[in-house]
Write a structure and sequence with these properties.
474 residues; alpha+beta; nine-stranded mixed beta sheet
């Protein structure tokens, strides 16, 4: 098979995107993926700013055939008394205002197959166990493939292993973000009620009471499949875990905790009252973290392998894919012009990537701050000028749509204003407390959102047709 220019660990969206853009630049690429695709994953609601990437990658038309569209996001409080709807059409005037909700099993396989079609060598069910980064002129990845130990050699290693954080763990460079210490649970439901905006494609974020420090994320991923993710603080989880174990749920406390929160939240209780679970529950516990050194002359950590924040604003897939595209340009310079030029190019790209991640982190921290602004209590149609740059709510719209890389310094200044108590109070009096009209939809119809998508595609890529579990059941 010969040596490679790039060895990529992980075939998710970040790894596949890296492979595609590096192949288009003429490099020899190997992707080593631990699982056999399709495999389910979290992170199913995609941002409008992904749209140009999908066009460039050549998968946009296929996405339109397979997945529901996403025109905006609605934030509501726990008891449903307050809500606001943020429609991407308010800031985006072309077709990209309609983003997508995807089944990650299908979406990820589509991207990995595209990488293979572009000429990357893709090996699934290859578990990388160790790497050699010590040599000056090559890297090696060694792992288990069908019971045999196999080693591949390349010039540069890309860790796109996601939350497995392959390199960060082995280099001892993985640090938890204590302020974002949360746990995520996710599964799909059949037979849900298509109300509360699900029928018109909205991502629903239901903010839970303060002691839980979390939220539900609800989105349609097919005509009869709703994804419902629960995010709660680790502190609250520990308290509930102890109670559930004492109540006899030693082995199934995770599912019982998830169902408990579904039943006790009016929005999810209503939507899922007659629904049944359609796949096994996914739990993600190692939730928010970062690595200090994410690249060197022969390696890079891209996407979730180097940093993961929070799923609140559905930013992870876009951050990983766009970072991969940007870094591919620097890696091409490294291969063609040498180490000095390559390190300079990688440093420049990394500055913009870090700026995007820092902006998202700031937005998330303000969101979780009890004294900060509550998106459920704001109207997306309110307007207040902010230093001549669009309007205050246009800025929030752009952040929710995914404009992290282009104007992160301007947005960061706006968020700093929201963190200043005096400035925030003045802004709140001018904007948030003024009478407003809360939109209920973004003007889309069921047919526009779901079109001719075939739910059989979802069934084919679900986890092994597991037995369905009813909400009312144990």
């Amino acid at each position: 098979m010969g040596d490679f220019d790039f060895i990529i660990i992980g075939g998710g969206p970040t790894g596949s995107t890296s492979a595609i853009f590096l192949r288009r630049k003429g490099h020899k690429v190997l992707v080593l993926e631990r699982e056999k695709f399709p495999r389910q994953h979290v992170g199913e609601s995609l941002l409008p700013f992904c749209y140009p990437l999908f066009e460039e990658l050549g998968i946009l038309e296929e996405l339109k055939k397979r997945f529901p569209r996403k025109p905006g996001a609605r934030f509501s409080n726990h008891d449903g008394t307050k809500s606001s709807t943020w429609c991407f059409r308010n800031i985006i005037q072309d077709d990209s205002y309609l983003s997508f909700h995807v089944v990650r099993a299908d979406f990820d396989k589509l991207l990995l197959d595209k990488a293979a079609a572009e000429g990357a060598t893709v090996i699934e069910e290859f578990k990388v166990e160790k790497v050699n980064l010590e040599a000056e002129d090559f890297v090696e990845a060694t792992g288990n493939y069908k019971g045999e130990t196999v080693t591949y050699r390349g010039k540069f290693l890309i860790d796109a292993s996601g939350q497995d954080t392959f390199l960060a763990r082995r280099l001892g460079d993985k640090t938890q973000i204590k302020e974002l210490d949360r746990i995520a649970f996710l599964t799909h439901w059949k037979g849900a009620k298509y109300t509360q905006g699900i029928d018109v494609g909205l991502l629903q974020i239901c903010i839970l009471p303060q002691e839980k420090s979390g939220w539900f994320g609800i989105q349609p991923v097919a005509k009869d499949r709703v994804s419902v993710g629960l995010i709660i603080s680790r502190k609250y989880l520990k308290e509930q875990k102890e109670k559930l174990r004492k109540a006899g749920h030693e082995n199934d406390w995770q599912m019982q905790l998830y169902l408990q929160e579904v039943r006790s939240t009016p929005l999810t209780a209503e939507i899922l009252s007659d629904a049944e679970i359609a796949q096994p529950l996914i739990a993600v516990s190692d939730f928010s973290y970062y690595a200090n050194k994410t690249f060197g002359h022969n390696f890079a950590m891209l996407g979730d392998s180097g940093k993961f924040l929070d799923a609140m604003f559905a930013s992870g897939v876009y951050l990983g894919m766009n970072s991969s595209k940007m870094f591919a340009e620097a890696l091409d310079i490294l291969m063609r012009q040498g180490k000095e030029a390559g390190m300079k190019a990688m440093s420049e790209k990394k500055k913009h990537i870090d700026g995007a991640y820092d902006l998202v982190e700031k937005f998330i921290n303000i969101y979780y701050d009890p004294a900060g602004f509550n998106l459920a209590e704001m109207s997306s149609t309110s307007e207040s000028g902010y230093k001549g740059f669009e309007t205050a709510f246009s800025l929030v719209h752009y952040l929710l749509a995914g404009d992290f890389f282009n104007n992160y310094e301007k947005y960061s200044g706006f968020l700093d204003m929201l963190k200043n108590p005096k400035q925030f109070a003045r802004w709140k009096n001018l904007v948030v407390d003024r009478p407003n009209v809360h939109e209920k939809t973004c003007g889309t119809t069921f047919d526009e959102i779901f079109g001719s998508i075939d739910d059989r595609l979802v069934e084919e890529t679900s986890i092994n047709g597991k037995k369905l579990q009813q909400l009312q059941g144990e």
